[in-house]
Amino acid sequence: MERRLRILLLALFLFTLLGAATELLLTSHTEGWQLVPLSFMMLSVVALGWFAIVRNKTGLKLFQGIMVCFIISGAVGVLLHFNSNEEFALEVYPGLAGLDLLWKSVKGAAPILAPGIMVQLGVLGLGFAYVENRYQRSEYRREK
Fold first, then answer.
1. How does pLDDT run across 82-122, given as a tens digit for each residue?
2. Residues 43-61 pLDDT 10s
3. Average pLDDT, whole number, for the chain?
4. What pLDDT does residue 135 have?
5. Which of the four pLDDT bands, split at 50, 70 and 90, describes residue 137?
6. Distant-in-sequence, close-in-space partners of 76: CB < 8 Å, separation ≥ 6
7. Environment class of residue 54 by beta-carbon count within 10 Å: exposed (0-12), middle (13-18) or buried (19+)?
8. Three-state SS sequence of the chain
9. What whole-number distance in Å separates Cα of residue 45 and Cα of residue 120?
10. pTM (whole model) above 0.85
11. Closest C-alpha to 74, from 120, 138, 5
12. Phi, psi (degrees; rounded to nearest 5) at 74
């Protein structure tokens, strides 16, 4: 059962990662701070590759650290998207305030919930790492 769960979580992670990276590239999310999510995505693939080769706790801990960075970058991304929309709304409608400003900021050109995919990927990756860690411990006990 654990083996199937590990495979399922890893497949979901990689499938979602591929889709999100493709979306970022298609929308030209490639300037300055916009490269952060793509960089974390590439690092996660490298960490997974390293873990697949060495199969040790260090590789898994590295992957977990990158997943925490995914979650943080997703939360920061939501704030950055919101602030960008707010600045634009204030440029177009200088007197805007209160709920009207909030509504324009939420509905702006930069989708404020889109960076949430990084949070989802981080949680999914941490779930995989948790199940993998449990699997490794049970395999170690069986070998003794």
1. 999 999 999 999 999 999 999 999 999 999 999 999 999 99
2. 999 999 999 999 888 999 9
3. 93
4. 82
5. confident
6. 115
7. exposed
8. CHHHHHHHHHHHHHHHHHHHHHHHHHCCCCCHHHHHHHHHHHHHHHHHHHHHHHCCHHHHHHHHHHHHHHHHHHHHHHHHHHHHHHHHHHHHCCCCCHHHHHHHHHCCCCCCCCCHHHHHHHHHHHHHHHHHHHHHHHHHHHHC
9. 16
10. yes
11. 120
12. -65, -45
Query: Cα dist. 101→60, 105, 112, 140 in Å?
Result: 44, 6, 14, 57
Say which amino acid occupies 99.
L
